Amino acid sequence: MPQQITDDRISIVPANEASWDDLQTIFGTTDYPSKCQCQRFKAPHSRWRSVDVDERAEQLREQTRCGRADAPSTSGLVAYLDDKPVGWCAVEPRTSYLGLLRARVPWTGRDEDKTDESVWTVTCFVTRKGFRRRGITYALARATVGFARERGARALEAYPMITKPGMEITWGELHVGSRDVFADAGFTEVNRPTLRRVVMRIDF
User: Fold this and answer.
1) E-strand spans in the chain?
2) Pick from 13, 17, 11, 20: which is nearest to 68 by CA?
3) Burial class (CB in 10 A: 0-12, 13-18, 19+), 61
4) Percent of the chain scored above 70 by pLDDT?
5) Between 118 and which of 51, 97, 124, 154 could a Cys-Cys bridge form, CB atoms 3.0 to 4.6 Å apart?
């Protein structure tokens, strides 16, 4: 198992305080993140499929406002390990994710106002190749709590996968994070819409 990284070596900043080159270094050029550019939940699936990678990247660049430290908002966090860019996490008001609002899974069995702008959500993690399975996702999940709360969130949600020993979950599926990652960050399970998916939440 790869050696775990201690928190004192990881620094996490709002994405607008990171450079665009750093973010694209994290996404890489061959894996799913480089193709998706964190746009999967930003639009209904049919619209997402009709947009090419370059346009998705431009959308992400505008959403993150990378390199614009004075920007009033951004769409996520960037993690550095000893000054190397190593991780990304998407965290925004839930209403920013039109595809999520139209999806079935997060809402099954829930009586929840989807249009409540005070509820934020964590939708995606990306860890740079060569740095995976070393605790970066855990550090990012913990950082989302203060980030959302300081920006006025009333609650913060996530929709992770349940991982079990011997049960294979592809990396692409696990971009939403695992249940253990959010439990470690103080989230509580509030719903289980499928056998492998849970809704985790913190109410501030």
Assistant:
1) 10-14, 76-81, 84-93, 119-127, 155-158, 188-191, 199-203
2) 17
3) middle
4) 95
5) 154
* 37-90: pLDDT as tens digits: 999 888 777 777 788 999 999 999 999 999 999 999 999 999 999 899 999 999
Measured distance CA(177)–CA(123) in Å, rounded: 8
8 Å CB contact between 169 and 129? no
- Provide the β-strand partners of residue 124: 90
Number of domains, the chain: 1
pTM for the full predicted model = 0.92
Strand 76-81, strand 199-203: pairing: unpaired
Q: Mean pLDDT throughout 140-146?
A: 97
CATH number of the domain within which 181 lies: 3.40.630.30
Residue 180 domain-assigned (yes or no): yes
3-state helix, strand, coil in the chain (%, to 5): 35, 25, 40
